Amino acid sequence: MATSKTAAVLQGKKVVVIGGTSGLGFAAASALIEEGVSVIIASSSADRVTAAITKLSDPAQQYNADASRVSGHALNLKGPTAEENLKEFFSKVGSFDHLLYTAGDSIAAKPLQEWSYEDIVNAGSVRFISAVLAIKVATGSPDYLKRNGGSIVLTTGVVAEKPLPNWSVVASYASGLYGLTRNLALDLAPLGIRINAISPGPVETELWAGIPEKERKEFLKATGDKLMTGKVGQPEDVANAYVYLLKDKNMTAQVVTSDAGSSVADRQ
């Protein structure tokens, strides 16, 4: 657990992680627990929430979390009931200090001609639309996200900066999150709430489940070989960036990139 003056900035804080049962969200929740934070995680599956809480509370995992500092709720972010579901969720959570939004739809990269209207909407239902709604609800009442010190961290992706074949639809939502972060920073400033975003490059998470296994493995291997680090990132690597953005009270309206240099150049 964090003990130094700078490391203890988050100690005792209450952080909501939407999408906190797997991938980047789970890794961020784990890192925050090690900082002395109380974490509330949310996922569409009640079983996954229970499993994540059990794992985070397990002394053998060495996350330094007792059961009193880890809780969670099922939260369906898809479809027209998303806003009402978020209202119910935040009413259960009550007052909290920071919000991390790492939830996303499975990644699907395919030619534009193969995208239907339904596919396009579904690609951004959780990743973008419900992110906006989560912020709307969380900041709409002083009983939820704390003002004058609260903050939000969204999750986008470097495909917004570096085009890739067949990624146009996903990239459009990623780019939208860039603009959302910067504009909302201005809108939320009078409330004393900061907002930033993390832009990960290729990271090995469950979001790649939308791509067939053989293609996924080949893609991650080929991608890793091109990166300056020689491999795709792991969730635990990027988790540190989320922690940093919560700690730095001077940071708002920014997108922090953690991508093994992929947005700059390929490995030579």
Number of domains: 1
CATH architecture: 3-Layer(aba) Sandwich
Radius of gyration: 18 Å
- Order of SSEs, N→C? EHEHEHEHEHEHHE
Distance between the termini: 40 Å
Would you tell me which CATH topology applies? Rossmann fold
Principal-axis shape equals globular
The total beta strand count reads 7
Strand arrangement, major sheet: 3-2-1-4-5-6-7
The percent range for strand residues is: 5-15%
Tally of DSSP helical segments:
7
Helix content: 25-40%
What structural class do you assign from the helix and strand content? alpha/beta
Largest sheet: 7 strands, parallel
Per CATH, the class reads Alpha Beta
Mean of pLDDT:
93
Q: In CATH, what is the homologous superfamily? A: NAD(P)-binding Rossmann-like Domain
Description:
The chain is α/β, with parallel strands linked by helices. The chain has one domain: 3-Layer(aba) Sandwich (Rossmann fold), CATH 3.40.50.720. Helices cover 40% and strands 13% of the residues. The chain contains seven helices and seven strands. The chain has helices at 23-34, 46-57, 82-93, 117-139, 168-188, 213-226, 235-247; strands spanning 14-18, 38-43, 70-74, 98-101, 151-155, 194-200, 255-258. A seven-stranded parallel beta sheet has the order 3-2-1-4-5-6-7, sandwiched between helices. Helix 1 (23-34) packs across helix 7 (235-247). The chain is globular, with a radius of gyration of 18 Å. The protein starts with 13 loop residues before the first strand and ends in a 10-residue tail after the last strand. GO terms for molecular function: oxidoreductase activity. Belongs to the short-chain dehydrogenases/reductases (SDR) family. Pfam families: SDR (PF23441). InterPro entries: NAD(P)-bd_dom_sf (IPR036291), SDR_DHRS6-like (IPR051122), SDR_fam (IPR002347), SDR_PhqE-like (IPR057571).
